[in-house]
Amino acid sequence: MIQAEGLSKSFGAVHAVRDVSFGVAQGELVGFLGPNGAGKSTTMKMLTGSLLPDAGRATVAGSPLNGRAIGARAAVGYLPEHTPLYREMRVNRYLDFVGQVHGMGRRARRDAFSRVVDACDLEGYTERRIHTLSKGYRQRVGLAQALFADPEVLILDEPTSGLDPGEIVRIRDLVVRLARSKTIMLSTHVLPEVEEVCHRVLIIAGGRLVADGSIGELSEGVAAAISVTAVADEADLLRWLGDVPGATAARIVARGDHGRLRVLIEVEDRFDVAAKVSRLLHDKGLTVLELRHEVPTLERVFLERTRLIRPDGATSEDALSIDRAEESA
Predict the structure, then answer these.
(1) Distances (CA, A) of 247 to 131, 243, 271, 281
(2) Alpha-carbon span 1 to 232, nearest angstrom
(3) What is the C-alpha separation between 216 and 311, in angstroms, rounded?
């Protein structure tokens, strides 16, 4: 249903997306992940026809996305990260306007209105002006517009961003229901959300695709590790843990108050090294708050695949440039 082949896009000197290729089959619910400035939003805009690529090509539902991509655009429902709503309009008037933009007749608009109001649980809110709704309900209106023309493909960019926990659960449940009849590509920073609902994960970093597969498949390549939380001098702790026999790498993954450090230690054998680390920390007289085995998770896969990736050795400032370029586009 979605096919990307060598997609590339630059904004001036900033290379946002470089040679990205993947496919999404009918009925798949795919998570699309990446750090800020990775090129996620730019890729999604190219897949909806909102941006044209500098190189490469994309098709949706068998139709090419180009300057006259009427068939492909009609097959896609798109919810951008910042939902573009006419806030002074009432919900019912806005959704009717969306139907008119799609070229739908009056009866088709009426049927679609009933369908999306039911699907997005908007009953009782359709006479309200959009600016009076909570963020969660505005997000539901955004989903309703994406669904109005009954597209085969949904592309959702951060659909739960900024919502309270209750709304996150409701939107997530709605996405799962929609996946029974739609092909969905979901971008989010909420990794447990992806673990819970997605069949497959794509990870982009530095404008390049760095991972593609199920969570189980991607986890197979993640090194065994243990995690230590202790109060210690940072340089000493890293040196001591890095010298433990069987440890292949050690790095700080979190810093807390009062000198607390969390260190992830990649190891050859978790159980053997854990015992050695425990003895070492005891001999050094350190305050140990936690010592635990790290099982492969999507968070670890994400960190492993993205932590060293930058386009052309770019800095975080360059990533910010990509963010700004994506927003302006």
Answers:
(1) 55, 7, 11, 15
(2) 53
(3) 27
pLDDT confidence tier of residue 4, bands split at 50, 70 and 90: very high
233/162 Cα distance (integer angstroms): 36
Q: Residue 130: inside a domain, yes or no?
A: yes
- The pLDDT tens digits of the residues spanning 112-151 come to 999 999 999 999 999 999 999 999 899 999 999 999 999 9
State residue 311's pLDDT score.
42
Assess contact for 279 and 219: CB atoms under 8 A.
no
Average of per-residue pLDDT across 199-214: 93
Domain boundary among 217, 252, 276: 217
Q: Are residues 104 and 97 in contact, defined by beta-carbon separation less than 8 angstroms?
A: no
**In 120-256, which residue ranges form alpha helices assigned H by DSSP?**
135-147, 165-178, 191-197, 215-219, 234-242
Give CA–CA dist 46/16, Å, rounded: 12
328 residue type, one letter: S
| 253: its two tokens | 């993954």
pTM assigned to the model: 0.76
Name the DSSP letter for residue 39. Answer: S
CA distance 106 to 93: 13
Domain extent at residue 10? 2-217
- Helices 234-242 and 270-283: angle between axes, nearest 10 degrees: 140
pLDDT of residue 325: 52
d(CA 134, CA 221): 42
Of 217, 247, 268, the one marking the end of a domain is 217
